[in-house]
Design goal:
heterodimer, A: 488 residues, alpha+beta, seven-stranded mixed beta sheet, six-stranded mixed beta sheet, elongated, B: 295 residues, mainly alpha, three-stranded antiparallel beta sheet, 9 helices, 4 strands, 33% helix, 4% strand
Chain lengths: 488, 295
């Protein structure tokens, strides 16, 4: 995803040369400024909120809690639904009853300037009843781990399996396996300019103008019009120079993107909110954390005939983009290599941390790291042949088509039926349940050749849809598998 | 990149292409800038539009210069009869193509040296008045030229020119793919820098209670100019057959493999010392130290 989001080079240069404009540079007549009270706890129940001192503070124009925001007090949309999720959880503009990560917005204060707004925000008294947390994703999926959402046992947000070829049969006849566990840590887009929103409402014409440091002004316009019940023609969204987005600046919606326009309409004055750097670290989307356990199964002469990968994906406290990041990692796990049999599963895990949405690369850096590290031991091994060191294959089976035009598209194999997603099951038995469903659907043992499978990306360019079926070597004649297991 | 695409077709300087972006009043429809898609989706839409405009310019120029269309070439902001110094500036062609709008400027003066023929008048009647003497009016192809239908709200009533205000094209709010606008093949180092950050530096740290420990640029390490090596980019050109420009998105590509490449490199480099397990990014200095047995 997601994230070209472009480099910020040209706009930054233009703005630092006093041409162009970030949102904060837009001149507004007599604007009000917003500041947020944010959760200091990763997971807690809110027992009370007292805003009386903040409302009484000189210069404060309005103080909003979840109870004061009318139609926008709702869970934000699930942007990319997928059947592998049940009851996907998304964030509310202002926390209602519970907080789910440090930095979640609880109260918005609107005042004559940012200093006053922040002073007043510090006067808001919120009582929390903290709850236990499991931050590490490997801890979060263990039995008895503290839950982010009570509705999701095991903190499992989604579970999904993708199969290509006949991995079980290939694994059974493989004579060498390398297994490694790799981890990629969480990072953030860290754009040059943080996010920013300013809004102005014309009471006479009924027109709402919003300056939003977003990658998706058209989508924001549509969303605002529909949520506030305004004709789309009366909503104008302008994304001026945004100072780099990298995926972080396309989410419908961040709390401020709704609350600031709402306040501008209610208060009759322009309102702006400029995210500071700390807020960007604790309030705007992040990405990357995944733990892969990847196996490469090879024949004696080194040909890698099967890949098996199981990974955990950290989705943070909410999953507004669905399984987008995890699914991209899953489908690109074979990298540029032609591996005829692939089995890959992932579990998307809720953790009480900043929500995860696509950030530049969107799962691909993780899968690339996993396959390349997985190949490392094989490359050093005496007999197995590395994926990378493999002798050139006939053109149509070459791992990467050097000529990316590839064979004509008409030579693509017939479209395979899409594999039906496997919904996550509660508790520790979700994997078994899913495997059972697969078996039932296939009408035979797990990994049977008839399992409907997604068309693998690697084979799109004209290679056969699956490797020629070869009978698995019988156990009596097969030499014992050599196994190299490399712990992380 | 968008400017370069237009400039290539119209034979004008990149600086003369004015891009309007990021304003819903200028565009009626679009999705967003993400997934490295802007150059592929918007870039090709702009390219196809520029081809239509180019054809219109050549038609009008051939008429004005009394030459055949095959002999017209576009360069340096003008239409030239190939092999001669006889030419008409694009501004003059634009003005002459629309006599209903008379601008008292150099372009109008130049344009009046020619007698616009029938095709131009027809075009003028069809398109109605345009808004500026330079490039803008040229960017008004008919919807059916583009194989598109009029947006529903404009479908009834008199035919209406395709303007930026009501364009059904997928035009996306912004593109900063390349730092050098005059070289679309020259990606900036930004995406490699992003990959390098993930490979060696960047890690959001939480404590056991879920408090972020490094929510600032002092504690959250990222590569600065002092850490980023000079990146030499070698281009392997494999144009895709799936779109007219043959372009692929590059916004994300550069950052994807960096972690794997650095880990492989380190594993190889340190193999003689018996250290070879780099199974986690970022690979910190202490991890390398530990891999060497703390020597």
């Amino acid at each position: 995803v997601h994230s070209d989001r472009g480099s910020s080079g040209r706009s930054t240069r233009r703005c630092s040369a006093a041409r162009g404009a970030f949102v904060d540079d837009i001149p507004l007549a007599n604007p009000l400024h917003a500041a947020f009270v944010r959760s200091p706890y990763a997971r807690a129940k809110i027992t009370s909120i007292d805003v009386s001192a903040a409302r009484a503070h000189p210069g404060v124009v309005a103080v909003y809690t979840a109870d004061d925001i009318g139609v926008i007090d709702r869970e934000m949309p699930l942007l990319i639904p997928h059947p592998s999720m049940t009851d996907a959880r998304t964030q509310r503009p202002l926390a209602k009853g519970d907080v789910y990560y440090v930095g979640q917005t609880v109260v918005m204060v609107v005042a004559v300037d940012r200093y006053t707004a922040e002073d007043a925000a510090s006067l808001v008294e919120v009582d929390y009843d903290p709850r236990p947390v499991a931050i590490d994703i490997e801890d979060a999926v263990k039995a008895g781990a503290a839950l982010v959402h009570d509705s999701h046992p095991g903190n499992v947000a989604a579970y999904y399996v993708q199969v290509s070829g006949n991995p079980d049969a290939a694994i059974a006849r493989a004579e060498h396996v390398t297994k490694v566990k790799v981890k990629v840590e969480r990072s953030t887009a860290a754009p040059m300019e943080c996010r920013a929103v300013a809004a102005q409402f014309d009471q006479v014409t009924g027109e709402l103008t919003v300056w939003d440091g977003t990658q998706a002004p058209i989508s924001v316009r549509g969303g605002l019009a529909s949520i506030f019940g305004i004709d789309e023609d009366k909503v104008r969204v302008i994304a001026p120079n945004v100072g780099g987005g990298f995926g972080q600046k396309v989410l419908l919606f961040y709390p401020d993107e709704l609350l600031v326009p709402m306040a501008a309409m209610q208060l009759g004055r322009p309102v702006k909110y400029i995210e500071d750097r700390r807020e960007n670290f604790i309030g705007s989307s992040q990405e990357r954390t995944q733990v892969h356990t990847i196996e490469l199964h090879a024949t004696k002469d080194g040909e890698v005939i099967a890949l098996r990968d199981s990974f955990l994906h950290d989705t943070g406290a909410f999953i507004p983009y669905g399984i987008a990041v995890a699914q991209v990692a899953s489908t690109s796990i074979a990298g540029p290599y032609r591996i005829p049999n692939i089995w890959v599963e992932f579990t998307a895990v809720y953790t009480p941390t900043v929500p995860v949405t696509p950030y530049r690369g969107c799962g691909r850096p993780q899968s690339c790291f996993a396959i390349e590290r997985g190949d490392g031991p094989a490359r050093r091994g005496a007999r197995p042949r590395s994926l990378r060191g493999a002798p050139p294959q006939p053109h149509r089976q070459r791992p990467v088509p050097v000529d990316a035009r590839g064979p004509p598209l008409r030579r693509r194999p017939p479209r395979q039926p899409r594999q039906r997603p496997v919904p996550a099951r509660a508790g520790d038995d979700h994997r078994r349940a899913a495997a059972g469903r697969l078996r039932r659907r296939a009408g035979q043992g797990a990994g049977g050749g008839e399992v409907p499978r997604p068309r693998p990306r690697l084979l799109r360019r004209g290679a056969p849809a699956s490797a020629p079926t070869r009978a698995a070597t019988s156990r009596s004649t097969r030499s014992p598998a050599r196994s190299t297991s490399i712990p992380a | 990149v968008f400017g370069q695409i237009v400039a290539d077709q119209l034979g004008v300087a990149v600086e003369d292409v004015i891009l309007v972006e990021g304003d819903t009043r200028a565009f009626d429809w679009g999705v967003a800038t993400f997934a490295s898609r802007a150059a592929v989706v918007s870039g090709n839409a702009i390219h196809k539009t520029a081809l239509l405009v180019r054809a219109q310019i050549i038609r009008a120029a051939a008429n004005m210069l009394e030459a055949s269309e095959e002999d017209i070439e576009l360069r340096d902001g003008a239409a030239w009869i190939r092999g001669t110094d006889r030419h008409a500036p694009l501004a003059a062609i634009a003005t002459a193509s629309n006599p209903l709008r008379y601008a008292f400027n150099d372009a109008a003066k130049a344009a009046t040296q020619f007698a616009p023929g029938e095709p131009s008048r027809r075009a003028a009647a069809r398109r109605g008045p345009a808004s500026g003497p330079r490039g803008d009016r040229l960017l008004q192809p008919r919807l059916r030229d583009l194989g598109l239908r009029r947006p529903r709200r404009y479908r009834r009533g008199r035919s209406r020119p395709l303007r930026r205000e009501n364009s059904p094209l997928r035009l996306h709010p912004r593109l900063r793919q390349h730092d050098q606008p005059d070289d679309r093949r020259g990606p900036g180092a930004g995406r490699h820098r992003a990959g390098l950050g993930g490979a060696l530096y960047e890690r959001i740290e939480y404590d056991a209670e879920g408090n972020p420990l490094n929510a600032n640029f002092v504690d959250f390490l990222m590569p600065y100019a002092t850490e980023v090596p000079s990146v030499e980019v070698l281009h392997l050109e494999t144009p895709t057959p799936l779109n007219p420009l043959g372009v692929k998105g590059v916004g994300e590509a550069g950052c994807i493999a960096v972690g794997a490449v650095i880990a492989s490199g380190l594993a190889d480099a340190l193999a003689p010392f018996g250290a070879g397990r780099f199974h986690q990014t970022p690979i910190t200095p202490s991890m390398i130290h530990a891999a060497l047995g703390g020597r």
